[in-house]
Amino acid sequence: MRVHLLPTHLLFAGKQEVWLANTHNTLRRVLTLFYQHCISFGTLVQTIFLDTMKMYTTILRTILLTFPLFISASPVANTNTIDSQSMSHRLFKRDCPSQEAIDSYFCGHSGVGNNTVFYSDLSDNKTLVDAFAKEVGGKWYETAVNMTQLELWRTQCSSYERDAQVLDKRVSAALAKLAYGRTYIMLGRRQVWNASIWVTTEWPLLEYVKYGIDLIAVNGYNTTQQQPYVAHKNPWVNAI
Fold first, then answer.
1. Which segments within 157-204 are labelled E, that is strand?
2. Does pTM top 0.85 for this prediction?
3. Which of 46, 61, 184, 224 lies 20 to 30 Å from 149 when distance is taken between CA atoms?
4. 3-class DSSP state for residue 224?
């Protein structure tokens, strides 16, 4: 905020006349009292002091009433830039949708249930996942949620959350919560990675409700090869 001060001769335009008039009146009263011999020296000093204070009070009130008119909005100084950015970050901080919000969306729009397909080590070959899901008549990550909705959610996430795959994990969790009956996990050619979303997020939820889950491992590159899933083993490691 920048304060604009008017030149003194403009700010106090007309105030000089007030001061001179007050001074003249004070001197006239003093001379009158002296000539009349009706006051003591102490009373004289008191009278001068009170009249002077009244004059300065008038000027001070004028300044205080006029001062707000000289303030105008302007860019903050550089010294406040960091604090302003910090405040902006606190007020407009991005956050991925909560797990509850995503779960609610899935319950109303996903159609997830029997024949849900999960995958591991096939991020670069999602067309294989999509083709198999269509074959078995099930949903997978990118068909359980509208892609426009998914991109909208991504814009709400902070850069830290995107790096930490917060949204991916929450969507995957919502998918796993609704899966039941015959469920598939498609595997690539490498061992199942212990830090993957499959191991850390999806599998624990399926394991929790495993009494209603028939989990089948599928060779992502040869979907005719299927067998019951054994955590966390990939029987097709390095298979061609």
1. 180-187
2. no
3. 184
4. strand
